[in-house]
Amino acid sequence: MEESPKTLRYVDIGINLSDPMFSGTYHGKKAHECDLDDVIQRARDVGCEKFMVTGSDLVESEEAVKIAQNYRELIFLNYTGFTGFCYATVGVHPCQAKLFDEYPEGPAKMLEELRKLAIKSKESGLAVAFGEIGLDYDRLFHSAKEPQLKYFEAQLDLAIEIGMPLFLHSRAASEDFERLLAAKLPQLPKGGLVHSFTGTMEEMERLVALGVDIGVNGCSMKTEENLEVVKAIPLERLQIETDGPWCEIRPSHASAKFLTGAPELPKSVKKEKWQKGMMVKGRNEPVAIARVAHVIAAVKGISVDEVCEAAWNNSIRMFGLGLSSN
């Protein structure tokens, strides 16, 4: 099932490039120099042509847009047909929902600031989705249910007003999540995607029935049950991601047995021993998207090319990313 990386192309629809780890800072301590350019180039070398940098609160959304802007202004050698490769999402993650009520000038002002950022960055072609928004009942110690529900719905309304597809998060909250989403989706022609999906077969089938795409990364394939869900995701609803610096495929995961023949990753070392050109142990990178695609193909019993082309077309159809969908 091996294919030359040159024949494959990827969109990493969920990559947290604003995370301090990609600047060499871990838990507030500087361990090595910023290697973000190298991280991106490694991914581009294996065919990752488009990146969607995740915004998870107002500040991080601004940073995601800034990263997209910075890389728009660079032209990489040996790359033709330049249309831009780095884009942002704008939104407030459910675990950060409490920030609305803590905003110094009040939640209405924060929503307005988010709205202005989304409109400006959409019009400039830098932001392509509203998110990461949704519900997370697994980690209610971050934000309680009430603010999550209130500001998920408020952000859905902003996405409808601005006309942006959704980049969604759902954990242990399927009933409320699907109820709120189903009421709004008819007003969003390009729909949305639930990223880093780890839900049940039934949840996946209900989301697909709603017309929502499913994002798959290493965390989506930890268990045998996860793999059965991935196997059943219709190709026309599949998108792929790494969610770096998290969600790497680990040796303990059920997916690891499908890595035979997968593209090798660059050498990784502990952060304290980092040298230029090396990956950092425990820090997932977008270069690993080739391995995600390989595992999905093996689980589904199809070629990696089929997985990549389907996911590529689905991502371009939904998010644009400077191209026209087929």
TrEMBL record:
Ligand binding (a divalent metal cation 1): E132, D243
Pfam families, per database record: TatD_DNase
Official protein name in the record: Deoxyribonuclease Tat-D
Keywords: Hydrolase, Metal-binding, Nuclease
Entry keyword annotation includes Zinc-finger: no
Domain of life: Eukaryota
PANTHER family assigned to the protein according to its UniProt record, in alphabetical order: DEOXYRIBONUCLEASE TATDN1, TATD FAMILY DEOXYRIBONUCLEASE
Keyword Hydrolase among record annotations: yes
Species lineage: Eukaryota, Fungi, Dikarya, Ascomycota, Pezizomycotina
Binding of a divalent metal cation 2, residues: H169, H195
GO molecular function per UniProt: 3'-5'-DNA exonuclease activity; metal ion binding
One cellular component (GO) term of this entry: cytosol
Family: Belongs to the metallo-dependent hydrolases superfamily. TatD-type hydrolase family.
